[in-house]
Amino acid sequence: MIFIIHRQTVENRNMQNMNKKLNDLNKQLKAANIQLEENAEKIANMTKVEERNRLAREIHDTLGHVLTGVVTGIDACNELITVAPEVAQKQLENIANAARQGMTDVRRSVKALRPDVLETLPFAEALEKMISEMVLSTRVHINYENSADIGNLSDDEEDVIYRIIQESITNSMRHGRATEINISIATENGNIIIDISDNGIGCKKIKNGFGLSHMKERLDMLGGSLSVDGREGFKVRAVLPVRLK
Description:
The longest helix is centred in the N-terminal third of the chain and has 79 residues, at 2-80. α1 (2-80) runs antiparallel to α2, α4 (123-138) runs parallel beside α5 and α5 (155-174) packs antiparallel against α6 (210-221). The chain is built from 6 helices and 5 strands; from the N terminus they run ααααβαββαββ. Strands 1-2-3-5-4 form a 5-stranded mixed sheet, covered by helices on one side. It is elongated. It has a single domain, classed as 2-Layer Sandwich (Heat Shock Protein 90), CATH 3.30.565.10. It is of the alpha+beta class.
């Protein structure tokens, strides 16, 4: 009887200890669950902010590019309308086509955050189309050279290169009032090098506005870098490590 009572006492004590441990574990699990819910909410909020910022970048790049071309082209038409009305009319047709394409790109950006032209054309052709449309609608002279193999890039790399060139052209005309822009794409040490320069007024005190900040953000996300120089005209150099599909 003494042995049985002793064993029962030990078992009761062990049961109490086990219950205490289970209660402690239960409290820890509840605390961990609350922490997970808080972290999940924070991540969801961060994701929303990032998505909003990305959408803002896409719309800013597309609208800024198109509207700059439209304004510059209309200014040119105002000068041509009295001396060469036929040329001015052709210019207005080019502007209208560029504006329609811009509207399509904005709709596409809202839906898929990717320019429509990158979905419908090979990347090299999409770049050439964007540049040629800007030349037609604004009469700004753009020298474009590409010696890099850009036919096998990932979608995010294509997006970054396209938007950097698009934003740089827009800035050259809108802020630098440039009449000539030089664009080159080359490969060096496993990187794609994008050099863009213009003959505009330049900028002695460069401030990272919306456009430059988002160019840098895009490159940072892919391990690239951005450098600018506004002493003679404006120069942009973007370096992007190549990741094959």
